[in-house]
Specification:
The protein contains 6 helices and 32 strands. It is mainly beta. The strands form 7 sheets. Strands 3, 4, 5, 6, 8, 10, 11, 12 and 14 form a 9-stranded mixed sheet that branches. Strands 17, 18, 19, 21, 23, 24 and 26 form a 7-stranded mixed sheet that branches. β31 and β32 form a beta hairpin.
Length: 515
């Protein structure tokens, strides 16, 4: 992510070679230039990235129906995006937090808001104010599902500075969490009343409604294990779900009850007997520090920059590690009055997913023990992960992007620590007992001491086993060509003074050194 693309026409082609066992899933991409990530993502430099299944990967039938591109009930993936506006006089100006140091403002020159951001949607009502979410660029859009037909909602929270908790405001609709952060859950799937999103979270949720109607989906800043009251967001209308009646002859679809297979690199680590607590440097707690506690960083150290080779921790390939995710240095069970206001920073780890070993909430809305994540709140939870396939640097950071820009980011280093396998010993050359044969006929009829390998005859080296035959000598330099008669030729030697010249009446050069 340290690739720099120049503005005003700069381009860069990204080429990804996906491993054949990479799991299908819901992901996203966004700008990640340190120091301006929040500004760039807040400006819309993000999008959804769907990884399709490999040709030999098979989903169970009930999941195939939900994930099929040919499903007539398919709902397009949804990207939740956060916007903040303020009004300076008669115009509208958009601003974003930029590294908590100030506001970046750009005048919109009195252009109506709905023409700028909300094409195809409706304008936010006055009571929403200047701090609101859109879905795929629309304010409070409507998605359509069919009565009694389980339908997949693939949702990505691209807002970089908030967390949200979504609730469908109807008892007729039920939700089931199928996958999070691009990895399928294990059975039984969690039935939810609401679903929580940290910044960067992706959730695949099946929805099934038993009654027709139009129902609002709202966001609340409070839920279960409350990750923060500082960065939460309340919005009465995030989007609407319109439930149309099941047509005559239509086929109802139940919630899925089968489990998707996971590749070997996502094998459960919950009962791994060889888990190592902490990395090679002895760090076993990742503590986001900053804000109320002083400078922004990880374990008190701000991001040093790329190329500095300063690492939070180093790890070995193909080894299971266990780490604790701290927050501001305050363990959850020691927070005093008012400490609930301290932000619970979302921990994000690039490249390798991690498994929640301990710290999930009972509802499963925020976090579930045993699930695989790449972004999760720092609820003093314990995670396990196993680096596979890739060595090198891994970025870790708080996914409140304004915090990351301030320095709450660091690097892991993954090394291949294994001892290279010892190559098998070279089999000994067959013992040479061919040398007793002194002429060509007896040599080629004999074998080496293994009784299998035939002896070979070379006029220069005599009779020997193949492995002991030295390479043919480099022919000596030819100075025989000065001789033109047979008598003078056969009595002369090459320039080495030893090798006799040979005479061939039919050759282009009648007198020459033997080749």
């Amino acid at each position: 992510i340290d690739t720099h693309i120049e503005p005003n026409g700069g381009t860069h082609d990204y080429v990804y070679h996906m491993p054949s066992d990479h799991l299908m899933g819901t992901h996203w991409y966004h700008a990640h230039h340190h120091g301006s990530t929040a500004m760039q993502v807040g400006s819309g430099m993000a999008g959804i990235l769907l990884v399709e299944p490999a040709a030999d990967y098979e989903l169970p039938a009930s999941l195939q129906e939900l994930y099929s591109d040919d499903d007539e009930h398919r709902v397009p993936p949804m990207l939740f995006f956060h916007h903040q506006f303020t009004d300076f006089g008669n115009d509208q100006t958009i601003f974003f937090w930029l590294s908590h140091q100030g506001l970046l403002s750009q005048s919109l020159n009195n252009v109506p808001m709905n023409e700028v951001w909300l094409t195809g949607g409706t304008s936010p009502p006055d009571e929403v104010g200047d701090d609101f979410y859109t879905v795929n660029g629309q304010y409070n859009p409507r998605v359509t599902v069919t009565q009694n037909v389980a339908t997949l909602l693939r949702m990505v929270h691209g807002g970089g500075s908030k967390h949200i908790t979504l609730t469908v405001n109807s008892a007729a609709c039920s939700l089931q969490l199928i996958a999070r952060d691009g990895v399928f859950h294990s059975l039984p799937y969690v039935e939810l009343d609401s679903i929580h999103f940290q910044s960067g979270t992706r959730s695949d949720v099946a929805i099934r409604c038993t009654q027709p109607g139009v129902f609002s989906v709202s966001s609340s800043s409070t839920v279960g294990l409350q990750p923060s009251t500082v960065n939460g967001h309340d919005q009465a209308n995030m989007f609407e779900v319109e439930v149309i009646p099941l047509p005559a002859g239509g086929v109802a679809r139940a919630m899925p009850t089968s489990e998707a297979p996971l590749p070997s690199y996502l094998s459960s680590l919950m009962n791994d007997p060889n888990v190592v607590v902490g990395g090679q440097m002895g760090v076993d707690v990742i503590d986001f520090t900053g804000g109320l506690r002083g400078g922004w960083g990880i374990n008190g150290v701000p991001f040093p920059g790329f190329g500095e080779q300063i690492y939070v921790e180093t790890f070995c390939l193909d080894t299971t590690y266990q780490m604790q995710l701290g927050d501001q240095g305050f363990p959850l069970n020691t927070r005093g009055p008012g400490m609930s206001m301290i932000p619970r920073h979302p921990y994000h780890q690039h490249v390798n997913h991690f498994q929640i070993f301990n710290g999930g909430d009972p509802s499963g809305s925020v976090m579930r023990d045993g699930e695989w994540r790449d972004v999760a709140p720092t609820l003093d939870s314990v995670i396990r992960f196993r680096p596979v396939h890739f060595t090198g640097e891994i970025v870790v950071h708080c996914h409140l992007l304004q915090h990351e820009d301030q320095g709450m980011m660091g690097l892991y280093r993954v090394n291949d620590c294994g001892v290279p396998p010892t190559p098998p010993p070279t089999p000994p050359a067959p013992e040479d007992d061919c040398t007793q044969n002194t002429n060509r006929i007896s040599c080629i009829a004999a074998t080496c001491s293994d009784g299998m390998t035939s002896c070979v005859f070379d006029r220069t080296n005599g009779c020997s086993c193949p492995s002991t035959v030295p390479p043919p000598p480099t022919p000596p330099a030819d100075d025989c060509s000065q001789y033109t008669t047979r008598r003078t030729c056969i009595t002369a030697t090459c320039s080495d003074g030893v090798t006799a010249c040979v005479f061939d009446r039919n050759a282009a050069t009648t007198c020459s050194c033997p080749q």
